[in-house]
Amino acid sequence: MTVDFAPFLPWPYLAALILAAVALAAFGLWRRVRGAWLRTAALAAFCLAIANPSVFQEEREPLSTIVAIVVDRSQSQENDGRREQADRALADLKDRLSRFPQIETRIVEAADSAETEAPSTKLFGALATALADVPPARVGGAVFITDGQIHDVPDVNQKLGFDAPIHGLITGKPNEFDRRIEIVSAPRFGIVGEQQKMTFRVVDDGAAPGGGAEVTIRLNGNEIATEHAEPGTDVPFSFTVPRGGNNILEFAVNPLAGEVTEVNNRAVHVLDGIRENLRVLLVSGEPHAGERAWRNLLKSDAAVDLVHFTILRPPEKQDGTPINELSLIAFPTRELFVDKISEFDLIIFDRYQHRGVLPILYYDNIAQYVQNGGALLIAAGPEHAGDDSIAATPLSAVLPATPTGVMNEKAYFPRLSDEGKKHPVTRGLEGASSEPPGWGRWFRTVDVDRPLGQTVMEAADGKPLLVLNRVGKGRVAMLLSDQGWLWARGFEGGGPHVSLYRRTAHWLMQEPALEEEALTARASGRTLEITRQTIEGDPGQATLTYPSGKTDEITLTEREPGLYKAEVKTTETGLFEVANDELTTLVHVGNVDAPEFKAAISTEEKLRPWAEKTKGLVRRLADADGPVDLPSILPVRGAVRVADDERLSLRMTDETVLKGINSLSLFGGLFGLAALLFLISSTWYREGR
């Protein structure tokens, strides 16, 4: 209750009036004038009436005490019945707290961190967010229901923003153990074909039985080695980068019987393969209009080291000029096709014919080069249909098509075949979707027998134009016309010769993105994007294996000819495996070095420093196989100064909220008037006697 004044006169005038009244009252009392006390009372009442005093009384309502319950919903809680323990503890704790009307609970469900981060358990961040709108004085405490593997525990010397107990109710079982594997050091990039070194380590957490471990190592899904490792010891490992782009190394350690989880028995490292400059040998049989198109394309590619020879003087050309007076460079056939043939990634014969420049044995050497993984491109012209065609040499063993000896001299628009519309080398070529195609015509092609492999482009009357084929470990392509230069020169609007030539060359050099049968997957946040490239028709469903071991059948939908895709949203993080037909691929969702997949055993140690500082309690919810045992609740008025080993202490708040104010004017209205009249009348009456 408070008294407030709202005077009818300004305070200076009121003060003067009060001083005058005090002086008069003092004089009367000093001189002992009859009725001085009544005059003094009347003057006081008059001054109070002018001061207009009022009595105010506040109506307040006690505020509730906020208790936060932070429930760990991270992926590690899926282990060994921990989620069931957490659910039971949450239900029991809510029931017990509901018996205290002055306590208000806030439930915080804390899952793995955001998609763009490494999966981790961040409970303190979730707690701070949940209590951001709560005054510190109203916070009665925080109870964490977790396995104890919290990755954002602040330093114990930091401030949380409130002064109340921190409690931990730990899921899991005592004496847990777990075996895991981790990458200690590894390169992020590596040159294709060169060796790279890395180090891994097997770690035993908790009361593990110990003993050595066998680690199986896979590269892009293929097993490449098995290593023996002693727990806690760094193990070096070397491997050769097989391809450009992403290469996924998977290290899998044999599980221990009874360990908490097998999810962290695999570790993944993603390495980007970088190709050194590709070495291409271009051999032109003679100068011609299309020779410059091939040369310009290959020279413009910074990733290509080009070696180009043009046969200007074949052996049969004899004009009497002495050899020592010729300015031409002799064709180093032995050096190129015997000594250093394996150093080339691609050999191109551009309108080349057998005229005695290459010994017949060298063609067999080129065929073996292809069988062993090399790449050969034949850009054919009229010479390929003649008597000196290289198809009449031992090279024919790897060529996908044999010429009939006839040239088809007919204007035509090069068109994609049904296979070509699906093949990544030719699919989506600019201008291919219209009829006739939106590019210029060609005028001749080499007639061949029915070719092997895939005919992805056709000439007049459906004749083969571009043929792709695999031979042994290598690849061969045949472009059965020498008139691609018409597109390069812009004839009738030109055409996509750069895309066509470049894709063909890179397919020959086994670029993964141009494989006609391929299964790939990539992660975008928590969404898996599965892509199946095929020229064989509907590939059916893909099988997706999650890190937890469960499997799903995924329906693939055709987005473009020969290109089937699917998107899968997942809450799990870790290594996923996708399989379709005989193809498999791996993809990792989340950070490959995520804290969530490191230590997996439940622990009381991370929360204990905070519990000791705030007089809280940390204890397990259950013994080995016992039921959930929840401690009782202890409300405490004022600061919690003593920790209780058996009960959850909660600091009760004294905060209130103002609901209303009642006011009473003491000398206002009839009451004030009556008081003044009574005192004045009493004065008059006393003086009248």
From TrEMBL:
Lineage: Bacteria, Pseudomonadati, Pseudomonadota, Alphaproteobacteria, Hyphomicrobiales
InterPro entries cross-referenced by the UniProt entry: Class_I_gatase-like
Ranges in coiled-coil conformation: none
Alphabetically ordered keywords of this record: Membrane, Transmembrane, Transmembrane helix
Protein name: Glutamine amidotransferase domain-containing protein
SUPFAM superfamilies: Class I glutamine amidotransferase-like
Sequence intervals crossing the membrane: 12-30, 37-56, 664-685
Species the sequence originates in: Sinorhizobium garamanticum
